[in-house]
Every structure is written in C-alpha cells, then in structure tokens.
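Blinded run. Sample ID left blank on purpose so nobody reads anything into the name before looking at the predicted structure. Input follows.
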Amino acid sequence: MRHSRILRHEAKKDPDDLLRSLIVTAIISMLVILSLTGYGISKVYEHYIIMDAEDDAINISEALYQAEKDLLLVSGPDGKNDLVIEKSNIAPLDAHLRSFLRPFDIVKIKIYSTDQKVIYSTDTNIIGEVDSRNSRLKRALSGFNDSKLERKEEVQDLADEHKFNVDVVETYIPIMDRKTVIGSFEVYVDVTRYRQEIRNVVALSVSIMALVLLSVFGFAFILIKKGTNELKITQEVLEKLSITDSLTGILNQRQILLRAKVEFSKLLRTSESNLPHNSLGFIMIDVDFFKTVNDTYGHLAGDSILQEFADRIAHSLRDYDEVGRFGGEEFLVILPNSDLDQVNIAAKRIWTAIREKPFIVEEAHIYITASLGIACVDKEDHDYTSALKRADDGLYKAKHSGRDRIASV
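Blinded prediction complete.
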C-alpha cells in the first residue's frame, strides 16, 4: 500500500521533470536566440553606418584634396608630386578646411605623409608626430581604405567645442596621385545620432523575435504538455502492471517478496545500530475450499471473490503494512514493527473480516473462510525466508487442523 503510493509518485515524477527540463531549455534557447539576434542586428546596422560614414569620408577627402591641391602638393625635380605642407600654408589650409567641413559631421581630420608623420591636423598639438605603430594607417598607405567605429570619451570638434561620449567612425583614406599613394587622410565622422536609432531598431527587432519565439514555443509547449500527460498515464499503467496483481490490484508476488526483503534489511540495520529490536511479522492466508467455489459458481465468480477477499485484507491493515497475492488463492501480509502478539491480533482482524459477512456474487450469498499461518523474524534468522517458511508451515497446520483458523509453529 505505502510502497504502491511511493511508486505511483515516482511514476508521475519523471514526465514532470522532462517537462521542466524542456521549459528551462526553451527559456535558455530564447534568451540565447534573442541575445544573438540583438547582437547580430546591432552589428549589421553598425556595418552599414560604418560603410555610409566611410563613403562620406572618401567623398569629403576627395573634394578636399581637389580643392586644396595647391596647399598640399609640391612638385619634385622628377616631376612627381609629394605631399608636403609648408608651415606658412598650415594656417590658411586650416581655415579653408574648417570652413569647408562645417556643414558636415566631421569632428577631426588628419593628413599623414608616407613616412607616417602627421603633417596636418585640426588638433594642431599633434602636427609633426610620427605614428609608426598604427597598423590601420599602414594599410591606408598600402592603398586600402580602413574604417572602424569607436566610442570616444571626449573629442574637440572643428568649432573647438568639447563633446563627450561620442561615437565616431575613423576612416583612413589613401591619397593617390597618378595611381601612387603619397599620403593618407584620417577622418573622424560623428555618428552619435545613430546610437539611439540602433537601440530602437534592436529593441523592436528583439521584441518581434520574442513574440515569434513565444508563439512557437508556446504552441510546442501545449503539444509537449499533452504528450507528457499521455506519457504519465502510460507510465502509471506500466508501473502498476509491473508491481501489482492484475486481478486484485494489490502487490504481485515479486513485489511483496521484495518488500519483505527491504523490511528485513531495515530490521538488520536497527539491530546493528543497537537500537531497540523491532520484530517483523508475516501472515500467510489461503481461501478455504476455493476450488469448490470455482466449480460451483464459476471462475468469474471466483475472480470476484478473490478481488473482494484482497480488499477486505487490505482494509484490515495499518497504513504501513503490506499485502500481496502470493499465489492462486494465497496472500502474504507483511507487518513491520510487530511482535507475535501483534501479528496474531492483525490475523484475527483479517480472519473476522473474511468470515463475518458473505461475499455477494450475482445475488448469491457465499460464505467464505480462510486459514492463516503467522510467524515473526527471530534474532537468529539470517534471512526473511526463515520466518516466511514458518508462516507457511503455520498455514499448512491450520489447513490440516480443520481450516478456518489461525496457527503458528
């Protein structure tokens, strides 16, 4: 009885654990998908911002170069142009550039010579410095554009105003003269205005994706929930079939003997721990003259009587006692923490419950009696089977002493 309830609880546990695992997996999957979606969209959006800023920087640089050639180029003896800015040209060049760039989102511009030296900057303090470790500059001096989005804590714009927490696209653009690289522009394009736009796009996209995922996972959850409910029912049926007798619904022989083994092991542990010794009782029960009942009333009536017989036994026991069908019309009762006197009292309750009122089968009132053999585990017993054999011998004694009685050996 108690054992059956535990097994039924465990039968319900596994599908619920599976459902919880699937829910946790779904939540983690959603979080990962939404995180990757937000990250991916922000990176794609940033890529297009960088590309647009790079195009703007290239166009502005080309226009500057064409407009300021006279101040930027010096012809050499070989007829080739070099990128050289005379000191006397820096002030007018700076004025022209600031005037030219004022309508655009340019916060800073630098011009490098081929030896990686800053020959002009809107930040005049760095003119003359050599940036020899700048790999991006080297790439530009090799003839390639190079753009990158950076966040600056502070920048000074062309109006000499300080801006804080600014997003800029730094673009290195090679300066070409007759297909030869003679220097590089470095242009800082302010793209801070896109920051909130990126956040809005990411938030909207993630929200839409979250709704889609919730719909998909919600539908999947309904299907899985239905499946786990069916699995629980199937598992309960299979569990019940594996441990119970199909006719009477009580424990089958394998399970009742397993419970006897478990209870005997508990008894041994109690003894080894020097705790007060508790005994373990057994009752073997057999229906008297059951073959006659079958021959007289039929096997269906016999089955009905066995079902009610098992039910009367079960209702005569304590919550922690166990009963199982041991054979055709034989039953075994296990009584933990019971000495022989307590086992005898339990046997009398069962004996009385069986014989006190008739079994009614198709309006026929059939009086049934039972023979019972009782025994308890002794301290000298090394296995529960010794006590079980004594209970069986008691049953044999009861049957050969006239049946309808309780006996022990």
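Unblinding after everyone has recorded impressions. The chain has two domains: 1-243, 253-407.
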